[in-house]
């Protein structure tokens, strides 16, 4: 496919004539589309987890049957994360001027294909290559969601709606660890074959149901996001990105905080089954359900954080994030140090950690999307991902090597340092405005 055809493939849907002017009728027409956007993007992004986080449950069995140590397993996570972060950043820039539906469907199909290749492989080199390519297609997941949410919802409600959408992480992560917890009994390869088939079915559904912008279905711009924008040249688009994203110190601070948020989140999720089996001596099916609890509690935490941001903090998301990050540290420390824990007590503390860590995980994206405005939201979210998935240097290979060398106590001590630094960086973004539309 040549460049012209590739550009045409991802071209946004053209605007349609606006046929309604009455505000009440506009709101009535917006409502079903907004419900459809939330539902389809939640399902779509959840399915990305089916073909990404399936590795977490497969890893303990792969380690035993293929004789892979923690450092090698961690390398898969790190390589995938670095490629994923770079891809998410690049597709964030692309996504601000691309068709959200086409970009998202392409990513799901690509990830599904390389999950099939991964499941058919047996060597560390092949695993590494296929999981890195999977990371590239995974980077097409979040940018179209950021584009859709900022085009279809006003800034004053974005934190609440973003928190509802953010349940997609927890739905996808929770369901896939439960599913793979049982699939792995038939062999670790089923953890990749079955999710890949489900992902392809979901891609077909999205291709049929997901719209692009409001203008593409004959609706005016959403309230509170109107800007007088003419047709932009590439140079003008780049200058807009520089102004709204790359010269905004708070977007850089919030992005940096994402490094620490994701280090904790991925350390717990990616290593959870193996860590619970080795430190708490739980069976893998029990560990899978505990990780599902971590994700479910995270969904509740994200919803509450979004509601609190809009209701009590006037959209200043990072102020909520400071408190949540600190409480993440308390929960993780208790999970590590509290003596004589029963399985239920360990589950409760793990759920508490998930509840609090998913608050800043959700709010980081909300904060930068609002600061950058809808014209640069995907780029801003992509920038946070460079930091977020760069964290796999620590949460992946770094943690695996540390545990191999000094054990899980050293691993937990390292994570407590990460949480402390995360609180400080979140606090540095405390003065950030709620959104950037007033300066546009």
Q: What is the CA–CA distance across the termini? A: 37 Å
Order of helices and strands: HHHHHHHHHHHHHHHHHH
Report the mean per-residue pLDDT as an integer. Answer: 87
Shape: globular
Task: Please tally the helical runs, counting DSSP H or I stretches of 4 or more residues.
Answer: 18
What is the C-alpha radius of gyration, as a whole number of Å? 21 Å
Q: What proportion of the residues is helical, as a percent range?
A: over 70%
Let me know the number of strands. 0
Please tell me about this protein's structure.
There is one protein chain. The longest helix has 32 residues, at 249-280. The chain is built from 18 helices and no strands. With 440 residues, it is mainly alpha-helical. It has helices at residues 3-9, 23-50, 54-66, 70-95, 100-119, 124-138, 142-152, 158-165, 167-183, 190-209, 234-246, 249-280, 284-312, 317-337, 343-372, 377-390, 392-406, 408-428. The model has no long low-confidence stretch (mean pLDDT 87).
Entry summary:
77% of the residues lie in helices and 0% in strands.
Topology:
Elements: H1 3-9, H2 23-50, H3 54-66, H4 70-95, H5 100-119, H6 124-138, H7 142-152, H8 158-165, H9 167-183, H10 190-209, H11 234-246, H12 249-280, H13 284-312, H14 317-337, H15 343-372, H16 377-390, H17 392-406, H18 408-428
Helix pairs in contact: 2-7, 2-9, 2-10, 3-9, 3-12, 4-6, 4-7, 4-16, 4-17, 5-6, 5-7, 5-10, 7-16, 8-13, 8-15, 9-13, 12-13, 12-15, 12-16, 12-17, 12-18, 13-14, 13-15, 14-15, 14-18, 15-16, 17-18
